[in-house]
What does this fold into?
Amino acid sequence: MLVTSRANIRYLTGFSGSAALVAVTHGDVLLVTDFRYDEQARAEAGAVARVEVESTSVWDRFFKELATLGPLAALGYEAHALTVQDAERFTQAGQAWRWTATKDLVERLRAAKGPGEVAAIRSAAELAGAALRDTLPQVRVGMTELEVAGVLEGALRRLGSEGHPFSTIVASGPRTALPHARSSRRTVAKGEWLLLDFGAQVDGYCADVTRTLVAGARATERQRALYELVAEAQRRARECVRAGMTGRDADALARDPIAARGFGEAFGHSLGHGLGLEVHEAPRLSKTNADPLPVGAVVTIEPGVYLAGQGGVRIEDDVHLSATGPVLLSDGRTELLELV
It folds into this structure.
């Protein structure tokens, strides 16, 4: 099987560089990279893979080394992680293998986390919580969303995050009704919703946390009622989710109480997703997923209610689905924060 997904390459071999091709057969693991990663690849992947380094064309070297693995009747490839341009290289190289598209083979292995993986995600989640606690006293009405994001990202880096798993979302006022808003130059106003969706990364593994608060004032009754609706649904889901239940049933844990209060149409995304080497991975906690959630998965629990032109609330925590029940990895703070 040809592996081209960076996350899958790291999972299978430990190599964390940005350029490599990996072939896995019954008896061998081959990793081909370029000169930039010579020492790194041998240090990270040398114990599990035969590492070959090429200073010119990695693909040409890959074809050459692939021939040493013996006759191959078929070669699986990751359809989601191979460009048409790269696929054409096989035709141009005169390779006559039968191509077989694979789907989620490695991703299914990655869905159930081992103890070391869970520990890394827990560390990332704890780091994210510490960064938020460091950031909130510095947030002021009149700052732009981008300025708030900059303070938060600085805290994440200072406390040890290897990177930002995704572009930090800071949204204020009516922009909090945009589930995947981009931080903007809009200034934060008194009494508005302020939503922060951010991540941290430790040993390659991601945490993903969202908090919604009120900036510069006490919450109104209407704000408090909306927040408590989402918070109650989120607490119910994170306490009741179990390995073995379907993604659909997990999603319903939060969706049903929100819908019962008349806000079903305002909760338009799924309840959550898997976390690991990527911030969005299997399994999905979605009303369309009838598959059981695997023991060992780490998932987000992130219900939200979004009212166009008014604003929205989302609360997100990270949960490990252990064999004995859900284990909260992030700090789980669901009280309404008011930055007065």
Summary: The first helix runs from residue 6 to 13.
